[in-house]
Amino acid sequence: MIPVPGFEGRRVAVFGLGRSGITAARALKAGGALPVLWDDGVSGRMQAEAEGFVVEDLTTADWSDFAALVLSPGAPLTHPRPHWSVDKAREAGVEIIGDLELFARALAALPGDERPRVVAITGTNGKSTTTALIGWVLKQAGLTVHVGGNIGIGVLALPEPTPDTVYVIECSSYQLDLTTTFAPDVAMLTNITPDHLDRHGGMEGYVAAKRRIFAHAGLPLVGVDEAAGRAAADGLKREGRDTRTVTTSPASAQGEDLRATPGLLIAGDVRIDLTDALALPGRHNAQNAAFAYAAARAVGVSHEQAVEGLLTFPGLAHRMEPAAEQNGVRFINDSKATNADAARQALSSYERVFWIAGGRAKDGGIDSLADLFPRIARAYLIGEAAPDFARALGDTPHVVSTTMEAAVQAAAADAAAEGGPAVVLLSPAAASFDQYPDFEARGEAFRAAVLAQISAKAP
Predict the structure, then answer these.
(1) Which of 32, 74, 120, 240 is the most buried (most CB within 10 A)?
(2) Based on C-alpha coordinates, what's the Rg of the chain?
(3) Minimal CA–CA distance to 357: which of 448, 429, 414?
């Protein structure tokens, strides 16, 4: 845990007692603050009381007595409307921050020669893989590395800083919205397409939240395949900031610092063959590799060590993860693809797929994937989105399977009947919440259905 100084002897309101909230309370207490906790749910309050924290109904508290409000990233700051705790904090002139800002202040309080380095990653898609990939590359190079934030371990639950530490932190737009002084040594925006627009009041607010990662960053790394990324890079350069750009588009490659295509990464005059990086298929993973390579070089990793790390990366669960193979049919678990742009990455990586899709649809559904429909041998639609996805697919072969088990069974049979190599791909292009608590549970359901299918067909 990372103790947070700066609030010694002062009351700090903490709303939302999920992973980040309860960890923030522990870190504040360790730093000498007097955290006062509240949650709309009874279970969160009971856990806080069991740990000996002060639990007080913040709806009736005296807010003039609080030094700050530490807000859960799950509670809306601005849209669709501010959470009631935000209204109360603003009325009392109390600053509103999150766990990422507490992390930033804890590091800033250290003497300069004792501060660790920080690599921060955000983006609409690919940020978790990029975060894990950077952590892997740095660890393989022998650095002391702690990976967390929006992935895995909450940022304040990571080990205490030492001068030789590198923190690799995934940052969501919700977390960045609650920062004011976050100053990573290397900050990257992998890509940006419409997502979470209801929470940010539209695309402009979403982009603004993502760009906060660069406000005090040392070296910005920016993906420029989308207009929002290009605008961010151009704005940083106009400010005189040393900024590196990454592209996967041959049409816009000239003048960019790093260019990534499937199986190949070009960094200046250096060409890196990625064909043996089995966990990094497709254009999007080439982009992830480009960011990881640039970040590793920026913190002092040699070219040879960085390349070795890329080639040995084992991949992440639920992100184009090979689940099984039988008689030439590969089953790929890409449950993390909760929107169309994420599913595009997987569909683009295979010439012909038996595609399992559906769940709780996001704005736009799968209409933007129409150019990839010719790659679909047949689609198997599950969850609430099945009727809408069926309409979008039109003449593309498809069936409404409704459940994961039925979809896997039908897809496996069709793929086997076609003969030769085939890919059964779960890349839902939708949220999981209609049938599963999260994308991890959905991915595990896919894995279980695949293994059951394989067992049933085994001689």
Answers:
(1) 120
(2) 23
(3) 429
